[in-house]
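Protein fold
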Amino acid sequence: MGSYKYLTYREDEGVAWITLNRPEVRNALNMELRGEIKQALREAAGSEKVKIIVVTGAGGNFCAGADLKEFMTMEAKDIEAYLDRYGTAVIARMIMDLDKLVIAAVDGFCMAGGLEIVEACDLAIATERARFGQTEVNVGLMPGGGGTQMLVRLIGLKRAKEMVATGKLIDAYEAERIGLVNKVVPAERLEEEVKGLCVQLLRKAPLTLKLIKKAVNYLTRKELEEGFKYEKELFIRCWLSEDRVEGIRAFLEKREPRYVGRDPLAER
């Protein structure tokens, strides 16, 4: 098995468990963790023993999204290359294109890029204390990992616009009601419930599950790819703005942001 610093990987009775492991920052996605998620997904995909993949988080949270401190140190000229190599959309594509079903096991906060990972997964089980939000707008950004495209297909146009534009958090039962997750369980039963679902799936023919996933994803996969590309263009435009810098700085300084609304492309 591969060596990992920011996640743990284990294979157990046909299931690969990928656990994001930066609990001190609610498993925020820095460059290294993003790279390790890709590596772990490749390892699970290539293992003949693995039939199902579970993605979860350590320390009582799933994932708080991007590591904003890292974002503040990134040069504007580097953002497109970063997105192409480490962006959440790259991880989402991998999950959707895997031949094996991927289950998200969600506890605590699941926000921004963390939510985009859940949106890409085939199934999701959440605890009663889980909280979900497409929260990028709260720091002067928009989703850049496919959230605008996947969310609307999961919960509908108006609900998706509301979540993306307000950046509000919703609880687990609301997430279940609108179709973000399949089931809500008490926190102490999360692993048990996920294992039970894995047992059900492991009894099915693996080729059949593979073909079912391909068939269900086929209708939207090509449309999603076009949407991902367009979203990336708009995200970069947003990234170049003064409001992105101010939004993240205000969040880190725990104060209200002072937005100006200037479009960086309008000044070229």
User: Anything to note?
Assistant: The mean pLDDT is 95.
